Amino acid sequence: MQKLLFAKIEAWLVIFLFLVGILAMVVFGALVLEGQKDAGRFVAPGKVAIAMAEIPRTVQSIITTGPPSRAGRYERFGDRSGWTFPAGEEAGKLDSYLLLSRYDGDRNRHVVELVDLSDHTVRHTWWPDADEMLADVPQDSDVINYSRWSTLEYEVVHPLLTPVGDLLIKDHQTPVTRIDHCARPVWQNAESYYHHSTELGPEGAMWLPSRIVPAPEKHGRHFFVDGLAEVTLDGELLREISLPGLLERNGMMATMFTAGSYVDDPLHLNDIQPVMADGPYWKRGDLFLSMRHRSLVLLYRPSEDRVIWHKQGPWLAQHDVDILDDRRIAIFNNNTYNRGQGSFILGANEINVYDFATDEVSSPFKEALAEMESLTLTEGLFDLTADGSAIVEEENSGRILIFAPDGRPVAEFVNRAEDDGAVYGLGWSRLITRAEGDAALQAIAARPACG
Q: What residue intervals traverse the membrane (predicted)?
């Protein structure tokens, strides 16, 4: 072996191997280009070349993309677990339900629970089986990360409860599936890859962010083309509007492309909030859109294909736009920066309220969220109740916080597992009114029991 390692090599052989290497690089690059064109005589070897070229990207994705089951240990939580009540149990009671989406660290899978906030008991539970649910869905896209398509890793993101006790569920970039009260699939829409929020519109259909695949060639193969997908509760995809397309048609190309570095996910649509009734600043059927990577909130009118209003900041990397009344919206402000040394939160998360009448932004729970150290770098959302209480989900940190209208913390849920003591992530929970929750439970009680 030593003789082999230290053997003399003729100069002509070194030059020859160098030239062969250069030629191989040229041929490899040509094959990659052929594969990207998806046409011509060398498509098959071109696809192989693309797969080889993407090995570093794939490895990086595996390393940097944490599973939804991510667990942490947070000193600021102490040893608290489950529901606790800083202001006493009575103060933490609300006349509503919480559709709690969480990763169960003891059973190593995601669960959805309907929690009665008047006594914080679980009234019904759904255990989706992603292995079974997604078994027959083709995994044939070269830009979708399929690593979460398993019961072990599947995260139920922003489930929607129907009046009969079914759920509409999805993970990020998966089909949307309707499951019954026993978590058995009723139907599935795999026409697109859906992600982030699920909200009902005024006509009774859902609006969901989607990823349109393949991306237009002019944008690049890995460009994340966010879509605005309208899907009925029976699973029919009514329409899918390209977000880059509507921005381009409205003269907003600068939100996606600049003369600087190319970014393949420049927008990152994470919420579509439909407008349910006319007001002085919007119309029924309009859509509020949240674009995290631009700290941008936008009002879009599909009936006219027109951007009505948009505002960038003061929120940073925000999620979850809610309509409060006929002139105000509220936004979950992650307050997340990245100055080249990784993401960090400027202080704490906030709930920003923007008033269209005054063009002013307020932060009514700023001190309360800072005091409780609400720190979710990504995701996260909130709900405001009729009496002005706030329910905040720290998705990354596995915690729910409930604040009284005066900002007092009155209830806290920490998603801690018993087996390992770690705190596991949440999946975008949802406030359910008393009437909606009662109706769903009555419907479930009238259906056959789950075996």
A: 12-33
